[in-house]
């Protein structure tokens, strides 16, 4: 399965989860296709509103594009949404992480599985 297809499937899976849990959610048009797309999902329930960037990973570290994450955070701020990084590591499930826990490297940004486990939350914890 190609990376774009895998990412789109993960976005659809998470969208379905939000809807099943009683949230209103939409998948942002062009997410994963356009280099300037600012997020993958927008979800809300009552006064809680989130801008979500979805990432999947086969290994224990997910490397991120610094420019993309900066645009994601700026988009969230402009629209008054809480930014949330949704990470699905193979055989580990979903973790939801505040972008402040993204680690800087010499070449960009990274989130490790360990950081996701210690700083991140599962769906029920993140979206009570």
Keywords:
128 residues; alpha+beta; Trna Endonuclease, Chain: A, domain 1; 5-stranded mixed sheet; 3-stranded antiparallel sheet; 34% helix; globular
Topology (elements, then pairings):
Blueprint: H1 3-20, E1 24-27, E2 41-45, E3 48-57, E4 61-64, H2 66-79, E5 82-89, E6 93-97, E7 103-104, E8 109-112, H3 113-119, H4 123-126
Parallel strand pairs: 3-5
Antiparallel strand pairs: 1-2, 2-3, 4-8, 5-6, 7-8
Description:
The chain has 128 residues and is of the alpha+beta class. It has a single domain (3-126), classed as 3-Layer(aba) Sandwich (Trna Endonuclease, Chain: A, domain 1), CATH 3.40.1350.10. It is 34% helix and 33% strand. It is built from four helices and eight strands, in the order H-E-E-E-E-H-E-E-E-E-H-H. The chain has helices spanning 3-20, 66-79, 113-119, 123-126, and strands at 24-27, 41-45, 48-57, 61-64, 82-89, 93-97, 103-104, 109-112. The strands form two sheets. The chain has a five-stranded mixed beta sheet with strand order 1-2-3-5-6, with helices on both faces. The protein has a three-stranded antiparallel beta sheet with strand order 4-8-7. A hairpin with a 2-residue loop joins strand 2 (41-45) and strand 3 (48-57). The chain is globular, with a radius of gyration of 14 Å.
């Amino acid at each position: 399965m190609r990376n774009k297809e895998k990412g789109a499937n993960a976005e659809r899976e998470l969208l379905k989860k939000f809807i099943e849990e009683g949230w209103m959610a939409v998948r942002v048009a062009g997410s994963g296709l356009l280099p300037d797309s600012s997020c993958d999902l927008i979800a809300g329930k009552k006064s809680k509103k989130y801008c979500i960037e979805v990432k999947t990973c086969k290994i224990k570290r997910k490397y991120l594009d610094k420019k993309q994450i900066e645009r994601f955070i700026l988009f969230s701020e402009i629209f008054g949404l809480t930014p949330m990084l949704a990470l699905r590591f193979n055989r580990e499930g979903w973790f939801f992480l505040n972008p402040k826990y993204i680690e800087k490297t010499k070449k960009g940004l990274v989130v490790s599985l360990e950081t996701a486990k210690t700083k991140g939350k599962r769906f029920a914890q993140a979206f009570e």
